[in-house]
Amino acid sequence: MTDPTTDPTTDPTTDPTADSPTGPTPAPTDPADGGPTLFTWEFATDPYPAYAWLREHAPVRRTTLPSGVEAWLVTRYADAREALAEGRLSKNPVHHAESAGAKGKTGIPGERSADLMTHLLNIDPPDHTRLRRLVSKAFTPRRVAEFGPRVQELTDRFIDGFAASGEADLIHDFAFPLPIYAICDLLGVPPQDQDDFRDWAGMMIRHGGGPRGGVARSVKRMRAYLVELIHRKREDPGEDLISGLIRASDHGEHLTENEAAGMAFILLFAGFETTVNLIGNGVHTLLRHPEQRARLQESLAAGETGLLETAVEELLRYDGPVELATWRYATGDLSLGGQSIAAGDPVLVVLAAADRDPARFNAPDTVDLARRDNPHLGYGHGIHYCLGAPLARLEARTALASLLTRLPDLRLAADPAELRWRGGLIMRGLRTLPVSFTAEAAQQK
Fold first, then answer.
1. Which of 32, 180, 373, 432 has the highest count of CB atoms within 10 angstroms of its CB?
2. What is the pLDDT of residues 328-341, one digit of tens each?
3. Residues 6+ apart with CB under 8 A from 253
């Protein structure tokens, strides 16, 4: 049995003021236009009917969030794509027109007090261009391909950990640790320190389940460690990402300590939770669609990779890991989807709604792992397109192929209606995913 004080997937409380890395725990809102109630626990279980209503009746809608902050929700694909590339929608919270207190309710809790605000999710060109150029070298197709054997090694290690038992919680035992240790390796965190990162990351994805203030404390500890690690890497650099950032700074790129720590922090944060949810949501979708899952298993057994690649894209579209794109703020008055957005207004693009827009996708509520016309927005669009998407895709392909091959009779070990989703505003992911399988088959690599 897991210890609720250390288990990152323990059920959170329903306290709407509790910490969360992407927003407060959901609480009911009072729709003024007869529309659906948003951001309740019931909504989190299946938000797609509500998003369908918004797409049809209020595609760009001003909404009061559980935190009390008012923001525009953008739900149609065409409007979402436009908003994601709109230069007048800034990522910098300084443009938020609300009070300092309201500004503190946006973004990642703890990043302000830990002085970790200078990262790719909070800046615009030219600083964004400069920092993205520095870190993009770690995510070239060649570098990601070279990382493939390590991802496979980690995948096998975690499956080995539960293969003999015939049951597992795929979130806690697999989807959570895999990307944590992978991104730690990429950053250059020594093996003896990686368990600390697992603990800090676990606190960050509890979405209200830990002690009050736990997220902020974890972020501060993470920042202190990253600053110390940057100093150590400066004295003894390696071939890792942090060493690469230091070398670039030493050669005139003018990367400050805060920028280096912020970059490492956001790569860790963005690089693990999205992949946790991609694997968890993806396996959940496959288990709920056995014909599609069997089709993929047949393809893998035949040694094919094409269906696996399109499958990952379809899982990103159908029930992706990022429900809403991160915060944007209007730098001036503008029009979006027929609505007038005032300077300083926050805008949240609902990727989950846009990626099920029937105006862009044929049969959007149907899972089709072979779907070819699939320009989903699961990893964003424009200059803020997810930098780590190639690594996340590699991890997802490796994880799914290994699970479906080594656990051929993998099945859900709970009533689907009893599964609960983590609270929060930006991410979408399961708290637990209990599965069972034939242990003997699982032991055959």
1. 180
2. 999 999 999 999 99
3. 130, 134
What pTM did the predictor assign? 0.86
Q: Are 428 and 323 in contact (CB under 8 A)?
A: yes
Q: Are 198 and 286 in contact (CB under 8 A)?
A: no
| pLDDT confidence tier of residue 94, bands split at 50, 70 and 90 | confident
The residue to which tokens 């030493």 are assigned? 250
Question: Peptide bond before 59: cis, by omega within 30 degrees of 0?
Answer: no
C-alpha distances out from residue 279 to 33, 242, 334, 350, 422, Å: 36, 26, 37, 20, 15
**In the predicted model, is pLDDT for residue 206 greater than 60?**
no
Res. 14: pLDDT tops 50: no
For residue range 56-74, list pLDDT tens digits in order. 999 999 999 988 889 999 9
- The residue behind tokens 């250390």 is 6
**Secondary structure of the chain in the HEC alphabet?**
CCCCCCCCCCCCCCCCCCCCECECCCCCCCCCCCCCCCCCHHHHHCCHHHHHHHHHHCCEEEEECCCCCEEEEECCHHHHHHHHHCCCEECCHHHCCCCHHHHCCCCCCCCCCCCCCCCCCCCCCCHHHHHHHHHHHHHCHHHHHHCHHHHHHHHHHHHHCCCCCCEEEHHHHHHCHHHHHHHHHHHCCCHHHHHHHHHHHHHHCCCCCCCCCHHHHHHHHHHHHHHHHHHHHHHCCCCCHHHHHHHHHHHHHCCCHHHHHHHHHHHHHHHHHHHHHHHHHHHHHHHHCHHHHHHHHHHHHCCCCHHHHHHHHHHHHHHCCECCCCCEEECCCEEECCEEECCCCEEEECHHHHCCCCCCCCCCCCCCCCCCCCCCCCCCCHHHCCCCHHHHHHHHHHHHHHHHHHCCCCEECCCHHHCCECCCCCECCECCCEEECCHHHHCCC
- What are the tokens at 287? 């288990």
pLDDT tens for each residue of 211-267: 455 667 777 788 788 888 888 888 888 888 888 877 766 555 666 777 777 777 777
Q: Compute CA distances 208 → 26, 38, 440, whole Å.
A: 10, 18, 38
For residues 345 and 427, what is the distance between their CA atoms, to the nearest angstrom?
21
Phi, psi angles (nearest 5°) of residue 388: -90, 10
Q: Residue 329: CB partners within 8 Å, gap ≥ 6? A: 89, 90, 91, 92, 93, 95, 96, 97, 344, 345, 346, 347
